[in-house]
Amino acid sequence: MFIEPSLGRKRQPEKRGQIEMICGSMFSGKTEELIRRLNRAKIARLKVEIFKPSIDKRYHEDEVVSHNESRIRSTPVDFAEDILLLSGDSDVIGIDEVQFFDNQIVSVVNKLAAQGKRVVMAGLDMDFKGKPFEPVPQLMAIAEYVTKVHAICMKCGDLASFSFRLSKAEEKVLLGEKESYEARCRKCFYEDLQ
Ligand code: ZN
Asked: Is 49 a catalytic residue?
């Protein structure tokens, strides 16, 4: 179970780093959960900085926007190491769409936590073939807290953990939203997987 760390500087004489991974399929509310946690840290007047890979240009350049349109300002970065350079003296680091970074993100996140920062990430844990989406499995391993959120299967209405691609495109990264993917449960995902 995820336990929110004590918020507020005054109650934290000694800053302790922590890593949180929010994962799941598309349409599972990962970004909403990320934004919820970061907004609560902001209410506690902690300094929050949010990053996302610059590959994700579906919406506004400098905002993390979830499917239900809640939004929060973020900085697009080309490389995981850029986050180390840009995080400064912030207390909490949010990272959205973390699956689009390369494996360098693992050591970057560990370094941020070693500096006493709380790192909260959101990302896809499986690709459209149902295979683990690196580097998210490694981030799940080093995190203190892993939260798996679920979507609803668009075929049968059960809980969904898989992202089914409706088009025949084979690239691992295919940006684009509702028209290209459906959330599916295990049974409905594998029934139609080619
Ligand atoms: Zn289903």
From this structure: no
CB 74 within 8 A of CB 94: yes
Among 20, 33, 49, 97, which one carries the catalytic annotation? 97
Contact (Cβ atoms closer than 8 angstroms) between residue 35 and residue 70: yes
Domain boundaries, the chain: 15-150
Distance 162 CA to ligand 1 centre (A): 10
Distance 71 CA to ligand 1 centre (A): 29
Residue position matching structure tokens 């898989």: 162
- In this prediction the pTM is 0.87
pLDDT digits (tens, 9 = 90+) for 115-174: 999 999 999 999 999 999 999 999 999 999 999 999 999 999 999 999 999 987 777 666
- CATH number, span 15-150: 3.40.50.300
Tell me which DSSP letter residue 91 carries.
S
Peptide linkage before 76 cis (omega within 30 of 0) = no
Separation between Cα atoms, residue 157 and residue 159, nearest integer Å: 7
Q: How far is the CA of 191 from the centre of ligand 1 (A)?
A: 9
Helical segments of 44-123, H only: 81-86, 104-114
